[in-house]
Amino acid sequence: MTHLTLTLIERSPDPERPAERPRRSIADRIRNVGTARMAALALVLATIAAIVWVNVSSASYHGFWETHLVIGIEDFQLEFTLHALVNEALMAIFFFTVGLEVRREFAIGELTSWSRAVVPVFAAIAGLVIPALVFVAFNLDSGAAGAWGVVISTDTAFLVGALALVGPKAPGRLRVFLLALAVVDDIGALSIIAVVYTEDFNPLPLIVAAVGLAGIYFTRYLRSGRGPIYVTLAIIVWLAFFASGVHPTLAGVAVALLIPVYRPDRRAVEQALELARTFQQSPNTQYARAAANSLRESISINERLQAAYAPYVAFVILPLFALANAGVELSPEILARAMVSPLTWGIVAALVVGKFIGVFGAAAFMKLTRIGTFGAGLSLDRVAGGAALCGIGFTISLFIVELAVEPSMRNDARVGVLSASVIAFVLATVIFRISDAVRPPDESLKLLVRPVDAKRDHISGPVDAPLTIVEYGDFQCSFCSRASGSIDEVREQLGDRLRYVWRHAPLTSYHPNALAAAEAAEAAGRQNAFAAFGKSLFADQERQLPSDIMRRASELGLDMPRFEEDLRSPDVTGRVRDDMLDAEAMDITAVPTFYINGRRHVGPYDAQSLIRALEASE
């Protein structure tokens, strides 16, 4: 009987023989465009459609979105326009996904460690405050100063899509920085909507909302049937927010912050595998359902909901929002008024100049004063391009236009938002192109981007040895396994003259267990067993499932409760991710990749070749 296993070892690329790029069909190219770019494109197309529609037939555009709907029965009825349905109901789902991301980042993501979070947090705060001040300076006498909330937020969907489109070749570190910044930016924007732009406040319905939110929190302890309960309570909370006068979209955020999030439990994953094996041996509905439920429960509901809702938000809700809110009439009279409107110019200046000064200025100050951690590849020229992209304030900016700007001035505000977004995109493109031209990538890829750090790195040999080998490797790669023998021979011949450093570069597209193996080695390293655990992984590369990892830890005599806790630690995850981002910045696509005294080694990596390269570098 064949047993089910998730271990899948393919032949990863040989670093000595770079693989030729296969010819791709048009369909392949479309598939490889990426979700972020496609989502941004969908927003752009919806925006263009809204502008064309409103300028071809303003009456039909406004008439369509002002269509009234009545939901409910007898005395319990809610009356909406289509426009309100999009902005207050569908956008609650968008804000729900924003809240899920915020919850995840603070629980197990980039914002769990203060040293990691301090740079994007302060950059985000400056990126909220400076644009607001710039806007108010332009509008002190215009009567629109209270609409400063329009310029505070960055559109995360456009930001990610634009970065994928015009960003640097290896945007990983910059992308992590900008996503962490966007999370804090969203928190600020949502707080301002709740505090500043809430009218006709009635606190009594919030008591009902509080009870509903408490029910959502305790639902996590139920063993089954949680989905319908979450949905029912979420609707009650939304209705309570609606009745209170607090913008009901914030109900989505409140619900999301109470949804549990955790790293996948390896024991639960192993249990799911056992149930899958049972189903394979005896296929029936009961075993299939048990296996599916067990596998689903091993992933937190937060991440399951993000995965489930993301396509609908990206390709339905946000394009609908753009279609309903980006309809700017572009008649000569309206454009002429916008050209002299302090509201329009205040929005453009705040988003394009204020966001750039706030984000880039804060990051530059922190880098110069050495506050916080800047990873390899997160240079100030890259931050400058990212800061320019932060001026794309589309979704929440248009959302707040509806809340904060008088109807007679909304066209001026929309012209400002759309113009600022285009200018910010063009400015970022120019910055990235200049950065690439001034600093050609070919030479930088030959150098080690992160110097060896005795406090951080896994070092074998004297920390002050004159010769250094840094290896980027993968515990599930057969080439790395064979290279370990070469390294042992080099160390034997050079003795105390050599220090050897291992860093992680798991090729997850070839080795599905490699990332988990790297994290397990890091967890073992917290008990001074990194080298021993690594050797055990190399000794049996086909058995690296969760049960195999736990068995190895037990055989090495590790403190198992501590080991399991460290496996779930965001610090362990972050440590491996840092190495992977370094590898991306240096364009490492095959392992093992060696650096000899800080310079990339090209050619054979047998012991004698490595020794000759080391001696030639002295």
Automatic annotation (TrEMBL):
State a single Pfam family of this protein.
Thioredoxin_4
- Localization per Swiss-Prot or TrEMBL: Cell inner membrane; Cell membrane
Q: Where are the transmembrane segments?
A: 39-60, 80-102, 114-138, 144-165, 177-197, 203-222, 229-259, 309-331, 343-366, 386-405, 417-435
Q: Which reaction does it catalyse?
A: Na(+)(in) + 2 H(+)(out) = Na(+)(out) + 2 H(+)(in)
Q: How does it sit in the membrane?
A: Multi-pass membrane protein
Q: Does the keyword Metal-binding apply?
A: no
Q: Which Gene3D superfamilies match?
A: Glutaredoxin, Na+/H+ antiporter like domain
Give the UniProt keywords, A-Z: Antiport, Cell membrane, Ion transport, Membrane, Sodium, Sodium transport, Transmembrane, Transmembrane helix, Transport
Thioredoxin domain segment(s): 416-618
Q: Where mainly located?
A: membrane
Among NCBIfam families, the record links this protein to: NhaA
* Family listed: Belongs to the NhaA Na(+)/H(+) (TC 2.A.33) antiporter family. In the N-terminal section; belongs to the NhaA Na(+)/H(+) (TC 2.A.33) antiporter family.
Function of this protein? Na(+)/H(+) antiporter that extrudes sodium in exchange for external protons.
Q: Which protein, by its recorded name, is this?
A: Na(+)/H(+) antiporter NhaA
- Species this chain originates from: Microbacterium pumilum
Q: Which gene encodes it?
A: nhaA
